[in-house]
Every structure is written in structure tokens, then in C-alpha cells.
Design a protein that fits this description.
Blueprint (H helix, E strand, L loop, with lengths): L7 E6 L5 H14 L4 E5 L16 H10 L1 E4 L13 H8 L2 E9 L12 E7 L9 E5 L2 E4 L5 H17 L4 E6 L7 H14 L5 E6 H10 L6 E4 L1 H14 L7 E6 L4 E5 L16 H13 L3 H17 L13 H11 L1
Parallel strand pairs: 1-2, 1-3, 3-12, 5-10, 8-9, 8-10
Antiparallel strand pairs: 4-5, 4-11, 6-7, 11-12
The chain binds adenosine-5'-triphosphate and magnesium ion.
Length: 338
């Protein structure tokens, strides 16, 4: 268990746009909950660091590697040539191979569905995002979809491990192996191999188009979903929409050696930045995922419940949820619920 003698050290990237405001909200809530934590704050630089070929400094990457955990606000990738995108740099340098997004209906915040409780796990390093595109001849281009046994086994292992560790009953592999016989076929083969090691967890395979139809018709059919990169990109946003949008959805990236980098899924929202209007819920819930990863489950539950109570009470809601509260009023309400 945590004690103030051994504080958690975590890297914090407040990020751009609304990032600093919602990061401030997390710091206040952690203070109020007396989480023994020391944040190492890192900002995106204003020039390219040759060691990372991006605006992220080597020191900030080292900080995440050393701490093993971090929380990241939205980062707007600077325009211009000669640098790698920030998210790509983080993904590559930290080996962030799985993106985990829990989606559950928030009590008291009405959407079309009341009973969503699922988790999407997206392979984050290959598939259609390998960046291998070229022109074959004029008027014909080619994009290579790479699926490897190693990356597929790794994400499948994580999905089943997650399911078991979180008391989940079923893992669904999402695919299009009827058409992409080789690539998605290999992905499924790896999922099957891992499934055999987890006899207590039901394993099923669902074709992506059917999966979309079922998710919209009845999301409560699903529990844990694991899938290659592009399908994960699309399905995870679809699932965020089921519960009320990007302002509410947390996520966590899992990397090599047990690194966890939690982040909100929304962008930097330049239209409302600096106005004390942003909803900090997604980043707060992401910070809860970070605490759970560290097995600080008491603090995680406490903060989680305070956020849910504040939203359920309905007195303090930010504009995106139809309310009139500022970021700081909402944050104060969460602290009061602790
Ligand atoms: P970026 O280029 O960084 O992705 P964007 O212009 O695409 O920025 P998003 O952050 O993706 O903007 O947001 C899209 C819309 O959702 C914007 O109108 C924004 O104000 C709103 N929005 C996003 N996140 C939040 C939040 N946490 N609270 C309130 N509104 C939000
Ligand atoms: Mg955006």
C-alpha cells in the first residue's frame, strides 16, 4: 500500500490548449484526495530535439521511462517539416503497443444507452498505420498493412490479462478475416492461441461490420474487445459516442516493460482554451486508470466515485454536458465529494 514516505513519481504532460487547465484540475483533485504523488511536469518544447526528432525532449521521455507511469494532456502537433508527430514519437520511443479505453454509461448522464460497460483494446504499433505507402505507377498507389505474430500475441496477451485482472468474462476479437485472410487471419490465430491459456474467459470472434451493427443495437452484448490498429481507432471512437462523447472518455497506453501513459482521448480544443470552460472528466478518469495501473485502488475508487457523484448530482456540469459550470467549479465539486 502507498504511504507518504514512498510517494508515487509520475510524469505529467499538461499539453496544449485546454491541457494545462484540465491538468490543474487533476492536481487539485489528487491533493484533495491526499494521493501521495510527486508530478514531474514536462512541456512540449519549442524546437526539435535531435535525439527524438520531435518537439518532445529526450529528458521528458526519460522521465516516463524512469517513472513507468505518466499522464498526458492533449498535444497539438506543431506544423512544419523535419520532425515526427508527438504521438508517433511517444508511441515509438516508449513502445506503447496497446491503447485501452473503458466505456461505461455514467449514472445520471442520459444517453441513448444505459448499460454500456465495455473496454476496447487497440493494437497500437502496426496494421494499416505502418506508414508504408507509395505510388506503384501513375494513378495507382499502394499501402501496406503489416500484421506480425509478435505484436498480435502481445496485444492479445494484454487483452486476456486485462480481462482476468478486472473480472471480465469475455474477450471478442474484431476482424475482417473473411476478406483479409492472411493479415487478420494471423491476428485471429494469435488471439486463439492466447485464449487457450484462459479457459475461464469466453473467447469469440466478431466480424467488424457485424460488430458495428451489434454495438449500435445493443452495446451490453460486449465486454472486452481486442483488435488491430485501424479497427481499434474507429470502434473506440464509436464506443466513446455511446456514452456521451470524447469529453468523458479516458484511455491508457500500455508500453514495453509495463509503462503506462494515461491520456484523455479528446484534442486540445483551441476554441475553448484558456476560458475555464473545459470538462476535465476525461483526464480525471484517465488519472484514475493510472492509479489503478499502480494498484492504488483505494485512491482510484475514491476519486472515481467523486467524479461520478458530481456528474450524477447534475448541479455542476460543464458546457459540453449541457451545464453552465466552469472547469474550476466542477473541480471544486469533485473535491467536495471526496
Ligand atoms: P485538436 O487538433 O487538438 O484535436 P480540435 O480542434 O480537433 O483540436 P478537439 O479537442 O478534438 O478539437 O475537440 C472537438 C470539439 O470538442 C471542440 O469544439 C471542443 O471544444 C470540444 N471538446 C473537446 N474536448 C473537450 C473537453 N474536455 N471539454 C469540453 N469540450 C471539449
Ligand atoms: Mg480533434
Amino acid at each position: 500500500a502507498a504511504s507518504s514516505a514512498h510517494p508515487i513519481r509520475a510524469t505529467l504532460f499538461p499539453g496544449d490548449g485546454i491541457g494545462p487547465e484540465i491538468a490543474e484540475s487533476v492536481k487539485q483533485v489528487f491533493n484533495a484526495a491526499e494521493v501521495p504523488i510527486e508530478w514531474e511536469e514536462h512541456y512540449v518544447g519549442d524546437k526539435v530535439d535531435p535525439r527524438t526528432e520531435s518537439f518532445l525532449t529526450w529528458e521528458s521521455l526519460e522521465s516516463v521511462r524512469r517513472n513507468g507511469v505518466g499522464l498526458k494532456g492533449p498535444m497539438a502537433t506543431p506544423i512544419g517539416k523535419g520532425h515526427r508527430s508527438l504521438n508517433l514519437t511517444l508511441r515509438k520511443e516508449l513502445g506503447l503497443y496497446a491503447n485501452v479505453r473503458p466505456c461505461y454509461s455514467l449514472p445520471g448522464y442520459k444517453t441513448r444507452y444505459d448499460d454500456v460497460d465495455l473496454v476496447t483494446i487497440r493494437e497500437n504499433t502496426e496494421g494499416e498505420y505502418s506508414g508504408l505507402e507509395h505510388q506503384v505507377v501513375r494513378g495507382v498507389v499502394e499501402s501496406l498493412k503489416i500484421i506480425t505474430r509478435q505484436a498480435s500475441l502481445r496485444v492479445a496477451e494484454y487483452a486476456f490479462h486485462y480481462a482476468k485482472a478486472n473480472g471480465r468474462k469475455r474477450v471478442s476479437a474484431i476482424h475482417k478475416a473473411n476478406i483479409m485472410r492472411k493479415t487478420d487471419g494471423l491476428f485471429l490465430k494469435c488471439c486463439r492461441e492466447v485464449a487457450e491459456k484462459y479457459p475461464d474467459i469466453t473467447y469469440e470472434e466478431v466480424i467488424i461490420d457485424n460488430c458495428c451493427m451489434l454495438l449500435v443495437k445493443n452495446p451490453s452484448l460486449f465486454d472486452v474487445l481486442v483488435m488491430p490498429n485501424l479497427y481499434g481507432d474507429i470502434i473506440s471512437d464509436l464506443c466513446a459516442g455511446l456514452i456521451g462523447g470524447l469529453g468523458l472518455t479516458p484511455s491508457c497506453n500500455i508500453g514495453e516493460g509495463g509503462i503506462a501513459l494515461a491520456e484523455a482521448v479528446h484534442g486540445s480544443a483551441p476554441d475553448i482554451a484558456g476560458k475555464n470552460l473545459a470538462n476535465p472528466t476525461a483526464l480525471l478518469l484517465s488519472s484514475v486508470m493510472m492509479l489503478r495501473h499502480l494498484q492504488h485502488n483505494d485512491k482510484a475508487d475514491q476519486i472515481h466515485n467523486a467524479i461520478l457523484s458530481t456528474i450524477a448530482e447534475g448541479k455542476y456540469r460543464t458546457g459540453d454536458l449541457g451545464g453552465k459550470s466552469s472547469t474550476s467549479e466542477f473541480t471544486k465539486a469533485v473535491c467536495d465529494h471526496l
